[in-house]
Specification:
By secondary structure, the protein is an alpha/beta fold. The protein has 17 helices and 8 strands. The chain has helices spanning about 5-10, 15-25, 40-45, 65, 75-85, 90-95, 105-115, 135-155, 160-180, 195-200, 210-230, 250-260, 275-280, 290-295, 310-320, 335-350, 370-380, and strands spanning about 30-35, 50-55, 100, 120-125, 240-245, 265-270, 325-330, 355-360. The chain has a 4-stranded parallel beta sheet, sandwiched between helices. Keywords: Iron, Iron-sulfur, Metal-binding.
Length: about 375
């Protein structure tokens, strides 16, 4: 495709432009809730009248400051997130009235104890099994507890009507994003992985969801129209890569950029910022808290044991996106994803007959040369 729609830039620049927007929101009297994970039930935050904003650190800049308090051999996402809060270098953290996290991993869970000394902190205790009846009850109770916390923090009443309205808007966003990333099922895809990721990431920093959804609809239609007229700038012979594993934001350029510099194209992100959370909707016909609890508990993150849902998701994605190779990205010291990589490798290679590569990295550039060599060899092998 020769030209991307002008609206595309709004999404790709959303994180940067959001700094001013979040300041304006605060000055207009609105509340801001900082969040860290796809398990966060956004609908409850929206129903409180607040806006949620992602605080996961994606830069190695504040890590040296974080390492004054945290171990050096800890996940870079955890260190970066804490470092930004500690140094007050992240406007989103600075303007947050409340932080909400989940006990997805031990590193985050303990880091939240320190974070709570900097900002008001609410931690949701996530059940780590999805196939037990009491797990849903526990998670529903945690969502009720979050609801009560938000009501007390912001002096509001979260009604079922407000929850249903938030569910509807958030579901509409998910459906539009599903349609957007599904464009990469085309051969060749209309956009590359870097461009796709900028849009997926940008929606987390777009605070007026109704306006965002309208812009998303317009962007999708324009991409389809441009593709039908002029095709794609991407070669039909480009090897189609699926990215799975840890959140990839802090390593997006050195992994995805390298893939696309070497004759590949990333057609699907299975990980947190991609398909994983958006694959299922909240049931709009059920009692709101129950429906929210059911939807979020089904997210197939590696913290769950067993986590067969991840393999089921990969099974469909590999076929639908006509994937030639899978790159499993693990951030340093992320033990759950690191341990799970063997299971994913066996499934991808033995069950799907697709090539697989495991890649462990952090946010620094020290391994950039090695990564470029390995990815180039992987693409060439395909």
């Amino acid at each position: 495709m020769n030209n991307l729609p002008s609206i595309f830039e709004e999404f790709s620049e959303a994180r940067k432009n959001g700094f001013i927007k979040v300041k304006n929101f605060k000055e207009s009297g609105k509340n801001v809730v900082g969040v860290f994970c796809t398990y966060t039930p956004y609908e409850v935050i929206y129903a409180s009248g607040a806006i949620p904003v992602g605080l996961c650190g994606m830069s190695d800049e504040p890590i040296p400051d974080a390492e004054k308090h945290l171990p050096k051999n800890l996940c870079p996402l955890i260190k970066s997130s804490y470092g930004f809060a500690l140094t007050e270098k992240c406007p989103y953290t600075y303007f947050s009235d409340l932080l909400v996290g989940e006990t997805t991993c031990d590193g985050k869970k303990k880091m939240y104890e320190y974070l709570g000394k900097i900002k008001p902190m609410h931690v949701m205790h996530l059940p780590q099994a999805q196939d037990r009846e009491h797990a849903l009850k526990v998670w529903k109770n945690e969502i009720e507890y979050l609801k009560e916390c938000l009501e007390k923090q912001f002096n509001v009443k979260i009604t079922d009507e407000k929850l249903r309205e938030a569910i509807k808007i958030k579901n509409e966003e998910r459906k539009l994003l599903q349609e957007f990333y599904s464009l990469s099922k085309l051969t060749p895809p209309p956009i590359g992985g870097l461009e796709m990721y900028k849009v997926l990431e940008g929606t987390g920093f777009s605070f007026d969801k109704i306006e965002q959804n309208n812009n998303m609809r317009k962007m999708i239609d324009e991409i389809k129209e441009e593709y039908s007229k002029n095709g794609s700038k991407i070669s039909k012979s480009a090897k189609r890569i699926l990215i799975t594993g840890c959140p990839i934001g802090g390593a997006i350029e050195k992994v995805v950029g390298t893939v696309e510099e070497n004759g590949g194209v990333v057609v699907c992100f299975e990980n947190c910022g991609g398909v994983k959370e958006k694959a299922q909707l909240v049931d709009e016909n059920k009692e709101p808290i129950e429906a929210i609890a059911e939807k979020y508990l089904k997210i197939p993150c590696s913290v769950m044991s067993n986590n067969d849902g991840r393999l089921e998701l990969l099974d469909g994605l590999i076929d639908e996106y006509k994937v030639d190779g899978v790159i499993d990205v693990t951030l340093q010291a992320c033990h759950t994803y690191n341990v799970e990589s063997m299971k994913v490798k066996e499934f991808v290679k033995n069950e799907k007959n697709v090539q697989y590569m495991s890649l462990e990295t952090d946010y620094s550039k020290t391994d950039l040369g090695q990564i470029k060599t390995r990815i180039a060899a992987f693409i060439e092998m395909l």
